[in-house]
Design a protein that fits this description.
Structural class: alpha/beta
Distance between the termini: 41 Å
Shape: globular
Helix content: 25-40%
Radius of gyration: 20 Å
Number of strands: 6
Strand order of the largest sheet: 5-4-3-6
Strand content: 5-15%
């Protein structure tokens, strides 16, 4: 609650406790409710504990809860921009997570040099996988891409008690039925297998002998560990 210009006799802040608080807020979907002053207060606390935290206006990248002054020139690379825009088209909106997609494209670019199929557990409308297929010119590849999801959000029967306490089944479960839209989205790509249902029950439908790329993002402990 300390103001930006105020000083304190405290020389350090329990950064680990602060990290737990911020993580809990993220899990409950509350970070977006923070005002700029709240964000500055958190940054002030981190600086007070000895962390090197840049000023917001000095950041080369500040999106998706990630801020850095390091090089972020990938954002203007035409090939990246094209792939990211394909992801936006799949999702129907910009999630604002360019760095995350940048890492995904890097991983997929490495994986394409290996033998095996691509698998994504947790697809929703297909932002990441659409961007990857566009980036890798998927129709020129002799690969299969398995996409596993309920295509309607979390399976409430698989929630742990901790997840229920965090509101996973209510507040943060904002997904909608989207299977037909997803099927239409991926119709332009070859060798795409949509598998509808809950992991781990659907994993046996992935008949791969080798997996080159696996992306797991289901926001749910039990299926993620199983995958």
């Amino acid at each position: 609650s300390r103001g930006r210009g105020e000083t304190s006799s405290a020389t350090s802040v329990d950064a680990e406790s602060l990290a737990h608080v911020v993580h809990a807020m993220h899990q409950r979907g509350e970070l977006a409710e923070l005002s700029p002053d709240h964000v500055e207060a958190i940054l002030y606390a981190l600086r007070s504990s000895g962390h090197q935290v840049p000023a917001i206006d000095a950041a080369a990248y500040n999106e998706d809860f990630l801020m850095t002054t390091h090089n972020a020139d990938f954002q203007s690379d035409p090939r990246f921009v094209d792939a990211y825009e394909r992801g936006i088209r799949a999702a129907g909106r910009d999630y604002g997570f360019r760095w995350r997609v940048h890492v995904g494209l890097w991983a997929a670019s490495c994986a394409i040099g290996l033998d095996g199929d691509f698998v994504e557990c947790g697809v929703n409308r297909g932002f990441m996988s659409s961007a990857i297929m566009r980036y890798l010119d998927w129709n020129s590849r002799d690969r299969r891409f398995f996409l596993l999801d309920t295509f309607r959000g979390l399976d409430l029967d698989l929630l742990t008690e901790d997840e229920k306490r965090l509101g996973k089944g209510t507040r943060t479960n904002t997904y909608e039925e989207c299977f037909e839209e997803v099927r239409a989205n991926f119709s332009e790509f070859r060798n795409v297998i949509l598998i509808r249902g809950s992991v781990p029950g659907t994993l046996t439908q992935v008949d791969s002998e080798a997996v080159a790329y696996l992306h797991i993002d289901m926001n749910n402990v039990t299926p993620e560990i199983a995958a």
